[in-house]
Amino acid sequence: MPDQAQEAAASKPRRRQARGERRAAQLLDAAAVVFAEVGYTAASTNAIAREAGVSPGTLYQFFPNKEAIAVELGGRLLEQWRTTNGRALSPENVQLPLAQMVDAMVDPLLEFNSRNPAFHVLMHGPDSPGQVTEAFETLHGAVCRRIEELLALYLPDTPKSEITIFANTVLALFKAGLDLLAVHQDEQAAYRTELKRALFRYLDPVIGDCLPPGP
């Protein structure tokens, strides 16, 4: 009996912790909706609490302010983006013909942004908390280095400085495409096609005549 009582007592904190984690996740999901709808500056903790179906007091039990919510949400989205980016920029995709490679790399990233519009708001918005934008800049640098590594597979004799220019241009084209997609919500398919067309036309004279690297 004492063992059973101890186990029951120990399980209560775990249940409370699990409920707390679910509530925090619920608030972050609600914040993502609100940020995507009105932007970071116009969003309020009251609007986030209302979207989550809880009182503002409940929200403040988990997050002291809107910035803390944005930082936590930004961290969660960045982690998901890293996973998606890792799959998109995989060695297997590099071995595809250029047109197929562009599709294989770009489509998962665009799908991620389509499913998570708050990611664009937080990562590219001029009014996002500094901690969020700093984390994004770190990720931006890592993605650029990964693109450099992939281009170097095609261009082993090209100076690194030149490959860096190619990589930065590819990333800038992609980011510009995301901005267009964010503005033209009703024409997503057309702008996706144009983004991939622009990337293909830029990369074709750079690596189009090169053989894909072997496995």
CATH topology of the largest domain: Tetracycline Repressor, domain 2
CATH-level-4 superfamily name of the largest domain = Tetracycline Repressor, domain 2
Overall 3D shape: elongated
Number of strands: 0
The pLDDT mean sits at: 87
- Poorly predicted residue ranges: 7-12
Number of helices: 10
CA-to-CA gap between the ends? Answer: 61 Å
Reported for the largest beta sheet, the result is:
none
Pfam family, one: TetR_C_15
InterPro entries: DNA-bd_HTH_TetR-type_CS, Homeodomain-like_sf, HTH-type_TetR-like_transc_reg, HTH_TetR, TetR_C_15
Protein name: TetR/AcrR family transcriptional regulator
Organism: Streptomyces polyasparticus
Describe this structure in words.
By secondary structure, this protein is mainly alpha-helical. It has two domains: 64 residues, Homeodomain-like (Arc Repressor Mutant, subunit A, Orthogonal Bundle), CATH 1.10.10.60; 145 residues, Tetracycline Repressor, domain 2, CATH 1.10.357.10. The chain has ten helices and no strands. Helix 1 crosses helix 7 and helix 8 packs across helix 9. The chain starts with a helix and ends in an 8-residue tail after the last helix. About 3% of the residues have low confidence.
